Amino acid sequence: MESFHKYTNVIAFLFLFFSSPLTLALQVGFYSKTCPNAETIVQQVVQQRFAADKSVAAALLRMHFHDCFVRGCDASILIDSTSTNQAEKASGANGSVREFALIDQIKAKLEQSCPQTVSCADIITLATRDSVALVGGPKYNVPTGRRDGLISKSNEVNVPGPSSTVSQAQQSFKIKGLTINDMVVLLGGHTVGITHCSFISDRLTNFQGTGAPDPTMNKTLLTQLKGTCGANPSADPSIFLDQKTPFVFDNEYYNQLKSNNGVLQIDQELAVDPLSSTLVNNMAANNAGFVQNFAKAMVKMGGIQVLQGTAGEIRTNCRVFNKN
């Protein structure tokens, strides 16, 4: 009888453990009771910003990606550096990440409506989803319930760069639980992306130390980019990664890769590397398939190493950790 009671106690413990908030998965509508207007507030502020600057979608996609690839999707990328800590923002890889003020604006409105309820990590995820829809991308449900991280260090930032090879990038994605298919689809977000001349200067003039441009780049594109980047190099002009439909979420990006019009080295290599070339061809031939796969991959990426339950915190200011 004693062993029976021990057995039932174990069962009761396991039931409580696995049904506790600490182990609940992210869920669509997480704030439906605690902050019913949360997603509407995010959507409205993003829409206002988009009306002023359509490149906000590219900016948020980049922010979301860079956040999730360092310590998971925990809004650690939003923390400002202090005299005692160089935060993720201070890393060179995050130098071009922007729209922090937009996240601040959303957070301020949410704090007015539902104080200390909606995490900064969920704000990034929701805002990114809404901005993608505004440029004609998929409208998909985003599971929420993330909490904000308590650590942000610049020396921990290690994300795939524009000159990464496909195999190098694949390893970075694999570590985060993402497949080569996820990688090719997520890089398709470059269909509304931008870069700066400083990130492609070697491809234009001195590719891999050869003293000549990258021979794989389409000659017309090469001439065009040389003109843009050479006109005012000190200003480091921005360049659309999709030269045809830069503000439309479509599969044109993949079609351009097939004609050697990839702006970033990693983009162009997707079309020729055996690991990814078939996937590029598939995405180029099927816009609906790309859009559907992109939504799935975004939800998957949004679940990387998330904090839940009582882990982390809900920041009142996305730029600083709460004072305990």
TrEMBL record:
Its EC number is 1.11.1.7. Disulfide bonds join C35-C114, C68-C73, C120-C318, C197-C229. Keywords: Calcium, Disulfide bond, Heme, Hydrogen peroxide, Iron, Metal-binding, Oxidoreductase, Peroxidase, Secreted, Signal. PROSITE patterns: PEROXIDASE_1, PEROXIDASE_2, PEROXIDASE_4. Ca(2+) 1 binds at D67, V70, G72, D74, S76, E88. Substrate binds at P160. The keyword Metal-binding applies. Residues 25-322 form the Plant heme peroxidase family profile domain. Residues 1-25 form the signal peptide. It catalyses: 2 a phenolic donor + H2O2 = 2 a phenolic radical donor + 2 H2O. Ca(2+) 2 binds at T191, D242, T245, D250. The active site is at H66. Its cofactor is Ca(2+); heme b. Binds 2 calcium ions per subunit. Heme b binds at H190. One of its GO terms (molecular function) is heme binding. It is found in: Secreted. Removal of H(2)O(2), oxidation of toxic reductants, biosynthesis and degradation of lignin, suberization, auxin catabolism, response to environmental stresses such as wounding, pathogen attack and oxidative stress. These functions might be dependent on each isozyme/isoform in each plant tissue. This is Peroxidase. It comes from Spinacia oleracea (Spinach).
